[in-house]
Design brief:
The protein is 17% helix and 28% strand. The chain has 138 residues and is of the alpha/beta class. The chain is globular and about 45 Å long.
Length: 138
């Protein structure tokens, strides 16, 4: 009998937004910049999918069941989404362009070590307050 892992990681993550038209451009820019593939689902006008090379995927959906207009990361539930990036150069490129793409930087006064001296990352939130942390490898 071979040792088969009980888990292979993230399958997908679904994020709800109150306004897909506002949130989609920010997420599309960020994820395609990080080489995720955009997928369209025919007939699903209120949802978008981006797939990573490892086949995990992220869903952004506008639902009539969404409560409120902004995410609140300090409430119970998801605090933020953290993604790996190749290196600090990628962080710098994204950080420079992100404000014009719908992202608001968080903890700018502590960049790139807001997560601690041994942690190199950039933090931002989308137009509806969903926080993303990009962590540089190494």
């Amino acid at each position: 009998m071979t040792d088969v892992p009980r888990s292979s990681g993230l399958h997908h993550l679904e994020l709800w937004t109150p306004d897909l038209g506002v949130a989609e451009p920010a997420w599309d820019w960020l994820l395609t910049t990080l080489e995720w593939r955009r997928e369209r689902v025919e007939g699903w006008e209120l949802g978008r999918i981006w797939r990573h090379l490892d086949e995990s995927y992220l869903v952004l959906e506008q639902s009539e069941d969404v409560l409120g207009a902004r995410a609140e990361r300090r409430s119970p539930g998801m605090n933020h989404l953290a993604l790996r990036v190749a290196d600090r150069t990628v962080l710098e490129e994204i950080r420079a362009e992100a404000p014009g793409r719908g992202w608001r930087e968080l903890f700018a006064d502590r960049y790139p070590h807001a997560g601690g001296e041994d942690h190199v990352a950039w933090y931002a939130e989308d137009p509806h307050g969903i926080e993303v942390e990009l962590v540089a490898a190494g």
